[in-house]
Amino acid sequence: MHRSKEQPLDRSISSSPQPSSPYPSPSPSGSLGSSDFLQLNVADASPGGRSDWLARELRRAIADGRLPVGSRLPATRTLAADLRVSRGVVTEAYQRLTEDGQLAGRGRGGTIVVAAPVTVTAPDTSATATRPTTARTPLYASAPIPPHPFTAPPGPEIFDELRAAPARIDLSPGVPDLAAFPRAAWLRAERAVLADLPAAGMGYGDPRGTPALRQAVAHWLARNRGIRVDPDEVLIVAGTAQALGLIAQVLHRDGDPAIAVEDPGSLGVRQHLQYWQVATPPIPVDDDGLCVDALRASGARAVLLTPAHQFPTGVVLGGPRRRELMHWASADGLIVEDDYDAEHRYDRAPVPALRSLLPDQVCYVGSVSKLLAPALRVGWLLAPSRYRTALADAKRFADLGNSALPQLVLARLMESGELERRLRLLRRRHRRRRDAMIAAIDAHLPGATVHGAAAGLHLTITFDQAATTPSDTDLAAAALARGVKVHPLAWHRQRPGRPGLVLGYAARTPGDITEGIALLADATVRP
């Protein structure tokens, strides 16, 4: 049946309702609408300024926290019906806040609050005033950022705080392209798993992981990292973070109170180790990777490093250094190899995993956080035989093992070749985004030096340490004030060094990356 288009409402108050409209007009007696949403009452608005009034009320609710970032607003049709106004009144108010950068339309996801402005409220000097004033001046790009991300040394909650900070362009390192998660393939694999899974498969399982995933991981590592391992040697963990925690606990109980780490090196890794009362003495990194002489001089019996793509500098542990490290490990040393993004390489041959060369001295840690999504919380740990039982016990008493269903789905994706196909797709996409970032740095930050661009999901830039160069934490704060998130290199250092920034590119489009670097360049000029 043909349905005629709805007739637009006249914005003036009609003397009688329009039967063709879904939005009832006020009755001749002057009855006006209200809404449970924010306790809005259209009687508070002047007849000719209802969009202005609604926009002001929404801004006030965002500023005072009644509508926090992430809140979903009512559909324009629903709110217009509640308030007994035309839909155009609500649409116009939403559009004004969208143009201000406070709201964003998400299609079927509705209209979402994406940023809360810093506001200045005019004082109310009237003795008879009964309502707070609405004279507010939003201060968006020029507003000072909240003080917590960069004004003090980073604490345990620093990454949560930075993730929660509103920004239009997130160039934080370590974030994969979450929009590219293979939802359709995952759903197909999950349906197939559930169709085949016996009732017993819903019970408690092996805390080391399901046999299917342990076998799939063994095959994956043989194909992609040159590691030959029996599935029985694979321990499935809740990501790299849990693997490090288990290792720290076992070594601490064995009387090893320290694990040496690279410097610069991941702040998050240090935090996880230190949580378990393990010291993290810094070992310098140069253009050939970890300085083994310094490791030897430190007296540490264990070291954690990222040899295939050092975080954050991106250097590869060179052949001579590898031989030195293997010689060090042969004297009862332990290497913890964090192979966090080795599959993502663009301009170089694959780098063999240390585990493939020295299995009896290397705890190898990997995950799907950079390949699929951190939310899956799935990783693996390969340990020398002398630690295997203790680590399995630590996993057992931590959580009785990872959830079985995601393990079985991931195993099916790995064995079907879906993960290799995804990796090939991501390499092409990441290469384009990396190239866009390098081009933007060349154009807007010609004085910056780029490090670690041949692989991974991030690169690092450093600046000459001149008297006029601001600190990298000041640069990161200025960038955030302009809507761009980055990591200051100082976060990942234990000893002083050249100022720099760590920039992720995997999760942003080339256009976003170019704009973000331009804003970053502006921050270096006018911090």
From the alpha carbons, calculate the radius of gyration and give it in angstroms.
28 Å
> Tell me about the biggest sheet?
8 strands, mixed
What is the share of helical residues?
25-40%
Tally the helices. 16
Class per helix and strand makeup: alpha/beta
Strand order of the largest sheet: 9-16-15-14-13-10-11-12
Describe this structure in words.
The protein is an alpha/beta fold. The chain has 16 helices and 21 strands. The protein has helices at 50-63, 76-83, 87-100, 158-164, 183-196, 211-224, 239-253, 267-275, 292-298, 319-330, 354-357, 385-399, 404-416, 418-444, 472-481, 510-525; strands at residues 34-35, 40-41, 72-73, 103-105, 111-113, 118-121, 136-139, 169-170, 234-237, 260-263, 282-286, 289-290, 302-305, 334-338, 362-367, 379-382, 449-451, 458-462, 484-485, 487-488, 500-504. It has an eight-stranded mixed sheet with strand order 9-16-15-14-13-10-11-12, sandwiched between helices. It has a four-stranded antiparallel sheet with strand order 17-18-21-20, covered by helices on one side. α5 (183-196) packs across α13, α6 (211-224) packs parallel to α13 and α15 (472-481) packs across α16 (510-525). The longest helix is centred in the last third of the chain and has 27 residues, at 418-444. The protein is globular, with a radius of gyration of 28 Å. The model is unreliable at 1-31 and 118-147 (pLDDT under 50).
